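Table S2 (text version). Query chain:
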Amino acid sequence: MNLLRFAYDNLTRRPARTTLTMTAISLGIAAIVALTAIAWGFEASWQKANDARGTDLIVTRLASENTMPSPFIAEKVRPALVNLPHVRQVVGLLSEMLTVSYDAPPMFVFGWEFNSYLWEHLQLLEGRWPESRNEPVIVIGTLAAELLHKKTGDMIEIEGVEMPVVGIFQSSALVENGALILTLQLVQQITDKTGKVNVLNLQLDSSASDSDIANIKQQVRDTLPGYTAITSGELVSQNAVVRISKAMSNATILIASLVGALVVFNTMLMSISERTREIGLLLALGWHPRTVIKLIVSESAMLTFAGGIIGIILGVLLTRGLEHIELMRGKIDAVFSFPFLLGVLALSIVLGIFGGLYPAIKAARTRPSQALRQE
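Corresponding C-alpha cell output:
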C-alpha cells in the first residue's frame, strides 16, 4: 500500500482526534495570518500615504515614536531648513485622531499647509478645495464620507467647531481616504496648538542624490539638536503602533508555533501508544524502522498541512471581515502576498514534521515481540 495513502487512512480512522488537532493548528495559523497581514498593512498604508505626497525627508522630534510624532513649534525649526541645499519646499503637517460624530469611530484629521504640494496627489471627485488658509471648511476622503454619511454641503463638527464639507477626494492610501483634511491653520486653532506641527515635510529638487540626502540628514542633526530628518519609511518603521503590531505578530508566530508543535506531539504520541500492536506487526512483517518513521511523520505533516490550508483561509476571511466592521473601517488595510501565505503553509508543515519526529522515532524503536503481546 502507498505510504501516504496508509497515513491518510490512519488519520481518518480517528476522525474526532484528527479534527480537534486540525482545528487547533488552523486557529494558530489563522492568528498568524491575520495579525501579520494587519501589521504589514498598517505600515504599508502609512508608507503609501507618505510616498504619494512626494515628500523626500521628514523632520520631526528625535525619538518621536507615538502614533503621531510629538508637536513642536514650526517656526523654531523652519528657518534652518529652508536654506539647506536642494530643499524646494518646507511644509508643515499636523495630525490628530478626533471624534467627529457620535455614531462613528475616531478619525484622522489632517492639517496641511494651504496651497502646498501635499494636496497635489489627491483626486477631487466632487466639490472644491479650500480657497484660503483660514477658510473654515473641510474636505473628506471617500471612505470618511461613507462612514460619516456626509456629502458636499453637509456640516461636520470638530472639537465644538461646525464647518461645511466642500469637497470629497480620493487617495491611493486608505489612511487618507478615511481622513478629514483642513488647512493647517484651522487644525492648529481647533486643537489649541497654534504654530505647532507634528512634522515638517521636505521636498527636494530632482538633482538631489542619495549622498545629498545623507548630507541633509547630517546637517539637520548638527544644526537642530533634538530633531532628526528621516525618510517616510524610517518614520513609519519607528512608529510605536507599527512596532507594537509587529511585536504582537512575532509573538503570535512564536506562541502559535510552540503550541502547534506540542499539539501535534501529543496527538502523535497518543496515536502510537494506541497502535503499539499495529506498529509491532508492521515491524514483524519486515518494515524497516525508517519506514515507520516516515509513516508517522507523514501523518503529522498531513495534519498540519490540512490545518495550515484551513488556517490560511480562516485568517484571510477574518481579516477581510475586520476591515468591514464599522469600528475598524479605514484603519485596517491588510496586506497578503503569495510568498507570505506560502511561507505560513511551509511553517505549518515544518511544525508537523518536528512535532511528529520524536513519536515517530519512539514508534520505530518498538520491539515487535513486546508489542504483539500487548492487548
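Notes on Table S2: The chain has two domains: 3-45+242-373, 57-230. The CA atoms of residues 296 and 360 lie 5 Å apart.
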